[in-house]
Structures are given as C-alpha cells and as structure tokens.
Amino acid sequence: MSEPLINHNSSLSTSHSSTAHDLADKTLIIFDWDGTLMDSIGLIVESMHVAGEAHGFVTTDLAVQDIIGLSLLTGIDILYPAATDAQRLAIQQSYSDYYIPNSHRTPFFTPIENMLQTLQSQGKQLAVATGKKRRGLDRVLDASGSHHYFEITRCADESGSKPDPQMLNDILNHTQKQIADAVFIGDSIYDIQMANKLGMTSIAVDYGTAASAALSAQQPTYQVETPQALAKLLCA
Predict the structure, then answer these.
(1) Mean per-residue pLDDT for 44-48?
(2) H or E segment and range at residue 155
(3) Does a cis peptide bond (omega within 30 degrees of 0) precede residue 220?
C-alpha cells in the first residue's frame, strides 16, 4: 500500500482543530470490536450470505463489508430493502444461528491482546463501543477471556446504531472523562463519523472493513494500516 504505516491527518475538520491530539495524554481508549480488535470480518460476511440465501436474498461480499459496524437489523435493512418485517427477523435469526457456533473462529488480531495489556499497565481506561448486540458482545468477551480489560462496553441495542454518538457519550459519562481525554479507534466509516460528531480524536484502521481511501475521506485524526502499527501508535 502506498500510504505510510501511521498517517497523522493534516486536514482536520473544524470540530477537530480545537482538540489536542497528543495520544500520550489520552486516558480513555475506546475501541470498536469487529475488524478493529477481533478478526471477525470473514465470518460476518459468510454468516450474512448464509442467512440471506436461506430466505431467498443474495448480496455481495463488499455490500456486507459496507454495513459492518451498524446494528444487525439496520444492516439487514440496507442489504435487503425488499424484505418484509418477518423476513428481516428471520434473516437475523438465521445469521445468529450460523455465527454463534462458528464464533470460535474469530481471534484477536496479533498483537492486540499484548497492546491491551500494555495500555492497562500504563493506567489507561479501556472501553468498547460496538454495533454488536449486548448478548453477542458478552459471548465473545467470555470466549476470549477479555472482560477484565474494559472499564465499560456499550452496544447498539443499548445506545443506538452508529454513527449516533450516544454510546460514546455513555462511556464518557460512566468514566467521568471529557471528550479531550478520549480517543476512539475503528475500522468503518461509521466509526469515524461517530467520533467526528463529538469532535473526538479518532484512529482509523485499514485492516478491517473499509477501504483506506473511504476512511481517509472521513478525516480521522490518525490512520494506520496494520494492528502492529496501531499498537505502536497507542503504546509509544
């Protein structure tokens, strides 16, 4: 890829320009989950194909990747606009029926767990803001043994689907932190849009769902190509 491993965006939006961007001063690190911490994109795409086709609907890999980060029902609405309410619910159930028994196939990206351990040892508070449902997030937190890393986690069925910033506001309120204390990291345009709505420092990661150019167009504060580059940026 032609972009550097770490790109500090020089064309910040007006809302960002008044915010300090020294990551060493950030005491609250908020992560998206799928495609940012966990290598789950392939299984999500596969599960959506299985679920849609079970009810007579066909889509593409790229279309599924484009809705990752949204709540599941919102994504189904976008992928299958002709589906009835009953079909939407049936697709959601079929998706869960396939994804859950195969979720052991979704490990953390290397070296994400070491990064979480390092940040925690540095006294940082860690949080998750995800498009997953609470039940789904709790299941993968249990399976990965990672509950203890996170001060708070918020899900789409608790706070609204991205790019609504309510889940970020919930996390700020819980931790009693200010926007300037926090950074949000995600792999979709909805992640960066959500951070931008609050004027929060953001890091876009290129190794998840969205193309690098699409993420760059959202004007994240930082942009990295690999999990290794993310760890280097956050833990320096």
Answers:
(1) 95
(2) strand 152-155
(3) no
Q: Which of 185, 197, 188 is nearest to 227 (CA)?
A: 185
In the block, which residue shows the tokens 């996390």?
171
DSSP 157-179: HHH-STT-THHHHHHHHHHT--G
Q: Please name the residues in contact with 43: beta carbons below 8 A apart, sequence gap of 6 or more.
A: 99, 102, 103, 105, 106
**Residue 36: per-residue pLDDT:** 97
Long-range contacts of 142-147 (CB under 8 A, 24+ apart): 143/103, 143/104, 144/38, 144/107, 144/108, 146/108, 146/113, 146/116
Least Cα distance to 30 among 194, 219, 145 occurs for 194
The helix/strand count (H/E) of the chain reads as: 12, 7
Which single residue is written with the structure tokens 């396939």?
A: 98
Q: Tokens 């005491």 map to which residue? A: 27
Q: Give the whole-angstrom CA distance, residue 137 versus residue 155.
A: 8
Pinpoint the alpha helices (H) of 105-235: 112-121, 134-144, 156-159, 166-175, 189-198, 212-217, 227-235
Structure tokens at 223: 């942009």
- Which residue has 């994400």 as its token pair? 112
pTM of structure? 0.86
The 10s digit of each residue's pLDDT in 60-119 is: 999 999 998 888 999 999 999 999 999 999 999 999 999 989 888 789 999 999 999 999
Beta pairing partners, 201: 183
Please tell me whether residue 43 adopts helix, strand or coil conformation.
helix
